[in-house]
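Hi Q.,

Before the meeting this afternoon, I wanted you to have the zinc ion prediction in hand. No need to reply - just skim if you have a minute. The sequence and ligand are here:
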Amino acid sequence: MSRLVLRGARYPGDVAIEGGRIVAVGDVAGQDGDEVRRVDGDLITAGFVNTHHHLYQWMTRGRAVGCDLFGWLTTLYPVWAKLEVEDVHAAARVGLAELLLSGCTTAADHHYLVPNGDDSVFDATAEAALEVGTRLHLARGSMDLGASDGGLPPDHVVEDLDAILASTERVINRWHDGERIVVTVAPCSPFSVTPQLMTESAALARRHGLRLHTHLAETREEEADCLARFGKRPLAVLDELGWVADDVWFAHGVHFDDAEVARLAETGAGVAHCPSSNARLASGFCRTPELLAAGVPVGLGVDGVASNEQGTLVTELRQALFSARQGAQRPDALMPADTLAMATTGGAACLGRDDVGRLSPGARADLVVWPADDLQDIPDPVDALVLGPDRRARHVYVEGELVVEDGHLTGMDLDAARTDLGRRSRRLWS
Ligand code: ZN
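Predicted structure with the ligand bound:
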């Protein structure tokens, strides 16, 4: 098997790949039989990890644009109830392709809408990931607390608890391989699931050695809802259910107080920080500087495109830096290298992985070559990537396989997929 050497990158120098793994980084001496690709002046990073997404939400971009989270959700739940399996597949193809072109090689998709209990929606997403070429953490989401029982979602979009657990077992059996497709157990949020579903989901995940994921502490309204129904703040509610632990990562984590930050650090529970979505929905500023200082694993998340509107990951690095500085009102609250770490090692830690998110020998060869012709005058290449103008990947490798070459996906026709998705989205609103 020949070795591939990417030569001449401005950062971090050469990178050699063999057998799906990174084998050398820096000043790599040539060997007989090397295949060489010149990437002079470009930047190479580990493939980014997206720790929170809802791929199906591409279907409902640009709606409820003046609403907060609860108003936005109650506008969209009835529309999402009309999703068909083919819609989910179409949205996942485009969503994962956009992620890949924006540097994301591992994506977590939290899917909690399962119309008519048809769990082939998870097959649709997994098949899209295989087609596009990304790794997928397939979070089997769920809701079992409808409006008539005090939940936020209308009754017709929630599922029965036993049906959810049985389906989750099926999805694990069908898809979990621990590398390309990793199944996660993921009840949706405190205001859409019962405590019993949280408890039983945790037991199920732990029987299989899988991780747990849910939305938490996203808005003040959620906090008020937990205080009203349980007499406790959101993190305390989940702590009592065995959900604050090192096999869990929470989406958003905006409204944690000092004691809660310490509790996350003590237990090793992670946070998927979604800065654009938080800004779009006016949810508040995630306290990323305090979380990182305490040692909490923090990754970046695009969140659904219905609340992000863009669906790209490289842009979240810049937004994370801006949000942290604005929230803390300190210019050094978060530095470009901190946000790059969030997008790579931090995200991998949230997902419980140490084989991706690293540009070092032994790691899986998931990496991104970024064009940087227009950034040569910026002294620090990481500052340039994070703060500089938006860009798309030049080349992307997953497990050493070329999945984006010269800015184009090697595995699918993105223009045709976009056209199909646009048609489906219009049908959903007709
Ligand atoms: Zn979300």
